[in-house]
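> example.struct
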């Protein structure tokens, strides 16, 4: 059924516009960006694309064809690794790539481990003692202090009690149990 539109300039004709049209919400389609060449490390062996490469070794460097460089690597049972692909011609080196990566990973782990051991944590731990603390409890607290200091925490010993002399005695007994390290 056609309904006359009261807002139309032409009142005598009914309008078909919008009576037979349905509107739908359509999701936006995302365009997939083309992937660039993934740079997940240097190119190895047959992945090297240049016709000529600068081959760097212990005896110096020379510009050779890619096929000759691959043959040299195969005779030595090593990999041809592209060190600098932006150079003209690209710089390549003959080496055992996986062995070098293993050594690098191990040295990185060792460096991270030593760095974490060397850095002090910003948090401070507090150990409380009183003049009534017995020697076996002081020994346990000193062991706890040593463990915290090895983890990199700063440790504050707090003595509670009434007399100054008894506090000094408790702190001196505790400090005698903790070895000095430089």
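> example.seq
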């Amino acid at each position: 059924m056609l309904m006359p539109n009261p807002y139309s300039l032409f009142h005598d004709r009914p309008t078909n516009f919008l009576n037979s049209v349905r509107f739908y919400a359509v999701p936006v389609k995302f365009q997939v960006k083309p992937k660039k060449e993934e740079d997940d490390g240097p190119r190895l062996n047959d992945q090297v694309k240049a016709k000529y490469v600068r081959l760097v070794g212990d005896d110096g460097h020379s510009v050779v064809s890619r096929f000759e460089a691959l043959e040299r690597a195969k005779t030595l049972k090593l990999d041809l690794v592209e060190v600098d692909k932006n150079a003209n011609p690209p710089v390549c080196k003959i080496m055992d790539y996986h062995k070098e990566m293993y050594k690098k990973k191990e040295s990185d782990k060792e460096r991270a481990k030593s760095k974490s051991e060397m850095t002090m944590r910003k948090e401070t731990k507090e150990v409380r003692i009183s003049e009534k603390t017995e020697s076996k409890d002081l020994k346990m607290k000193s062991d706890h202090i040593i463990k915290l200091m090895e983890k990199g925490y700063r440790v504050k010993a707090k003595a509670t009690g009434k007399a100054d002399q008894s506090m000094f005695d408790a702190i001196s007994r505790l400090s005698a149990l903790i070895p000095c390290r430089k």
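> remarks
The radius of gyration is 38 Å.
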